[in-house]
């Protein structure tokens, strides 16, 4: 062949190799969710690609056969076409054998560089950039290649399958999508600006409903406004005015004997109609949903759905009331730190390195605020107060402190053994250079007050 014919053949071989490289990487990088969406929109090519992804063995066999055959032919044609010319050029300065070796080396470097650049790097980067758009266009030509090379495809595919079976490996692609995969995609979308940071946080909170217990969202026992069943009309009216809520548990004797609940709308209707309020009236008191304190928030939502209620009383293993939860409490957990105007923020950031946190704040919210992955003895407590009790091994007193993970947790106020306020400070400033090792928490005991 003449030099021009050899260069033309080399160009065709580079194009063929680029085709196989692009077909390989685009199929591997194509997202099944996007392909499924394209198939649902009527694109038959996307449906073909989905079937290829389910059984990709024959597809990749054709790719490897094609790439290796083209690479061998490219080496043969390139060496025969370019080496003599380079040898003649180098013979002007070198002896015969040396010029031949230099010509072969120059031919090898040029052909290899052309294949690496135009048959490998460029097509693969292009395939990674737009995998779905390219793979649907290349699927039909690849199907023709699989038909044309069927005997070779069968031989090599069966050999590869035998190796997989011998090694006890699966050759099927695992397309299961976990919650971690979805969260990773949401994080990537937020970094790319496609998803707002608030939207990403809401989605993350939704997945946490399966891990957060109802205790993390409830109103604790000491904050429950309730009625006794035998309380007179005047006391009920005063209680409504002093503690306005949408729902009130109704108890027999004390708070641990809940017999139902009453809706504030029903009470207001009686007040507006100048009717007396008597909780002995069974038509006024509704049946209450009782749930254990170990349920997750997702399980509580399911219970709300089943009984068509949005209010529940939470009890512990000793049948003692520990709190109440509403549908709004659960949704507030999903929405993160979006609070209504009448709500009190449990976490207040004072400056760059310190926070003022309520003792009953759920530990998950504390972790989010401090950008921590976990705290010691996870599972033994639900709130920041519980964390301090576990770390101190006693009921905390004012000025008690615990240092862990680059933060100092100091008790500021205790009311009847209840931790009201905790000051959390970053140790060593923003860099945290003075922070102790997370594996060795520091505990400081305060003085009795």
From TrEMBL:
Membrane topology: Multi-pass membrane protein
InterPro entries: CBS_dom (IPR000644), CBS_dom_sf (IPR046342), CNNM (IPR002550), FAD-bd_PCMH-like_sf (IPR036318), FAD-bd_PCMH_sub2 (IPR016169), Ion_transp-like_CBS (IPR044751), Transptr-assoc_dom (IPR005170)
Any Pfam family hit: CBS
Keyword presence, Transport: yes
Superkingdom of the organism of origin: Bacteria
Subcellular location: Cell inner membrane
Domain CBS: 284-344
Domain CNNM transmembrane, residue spans: 1-199
Gene3D superfamilies, A to Z: 3.30.465.10, CBS-domain
Transmembrane intervals: 102-122
Region (Disordered), start-end ranges: 429-449
CDD domains registered for this protein in UniProt: CBS_pair_CorC_HlyC_assoc (cd04590)
PANTHER family in the cross-refs: HEMOLYSIN-RELATED, POLYAMINE EXPORT PROTEIN
Family: Belongs to the UPF0053 family. PaeA subfamily.
Function as written in the Swiss-Prot or TrEMBL entry: Involved in cadaverine and putrescine tolerance in stationary phase. May facilitate the efflux of both cadaverine and putrescine from the cytoplasm, reducing potentially toxic levels under certain stress conditions.
Identification of the protein by name: Polyamine export protein
